[in-house]
Amino acid sequence: MIVRILGEGQLELPESAAEELNRLDAALESAVERNDEAAFRPALTALLAKAREVGSPAQADDLRPSELIIPQQDASMDEVRKLLTDEGLIPG
User: Fold this and answer.
1) Global pTM value
2) Which of 30, 33, 55, 60 has most Cβ atoms within 10 angstroms of its Cβ?
3) Burial 45-71 (b: 16+ CB within 10 A, else e)
4) Quick check: is 53 in a domain?
5) Are 13 and 21 in contact (CB under 8 A)?
């Protein structure tokens, strides 16, 4: 799957990472829903760290669209709130 981290570029992530990314996404979504700034920043950091850990940079000539968009590290809670869907950032 192709994931875009805003401000950084695209990563190709294995499908096997989806379950862990969904768990981290749920924690981020919960923090946003509760307007819990203390939980928000660590949750976003953990999601980004996992995506970077398991992902590899997508090739520059890879024209596939991003399946998922993850906000940049310094995103505000309001910016993340705007990106959330009914299924969080990561569907599934």
Assistant:
1) 0.86
2) 55
3) ebbbebbbebbeebeeeeeeebebebb
4) yes
5) yes
Q: In angstroms, rounded to a whole number, what is the distance separating the alpha carbons of residues 57 and 34?
A: 33
Residue 89 lies in a domain: no
Q: Which two tokens stand for residue 16?
A: 């096997």
Give the domain extent around 34.
2-83
The pairing of beta strand 68-70 with beta strand 2-5:
parallel
d(CA 73, CA 49) in angstroms, rounded, equals: 10
The model's pLDDT over 8-28, given as tens digits with 9 standing for 90+, comes to 999 999 999 989 999 999 999
Between 37-54 and 18-33, two packed helices, what is the crossing angle to 10 degrees? 160
Q: Which two tokens stand for residue 38?
A: 């203390």
Tens of pLDDT, residue by residue over 49-64, are 999 999 999 987 877 8
d(CA 35, CA 10): 28
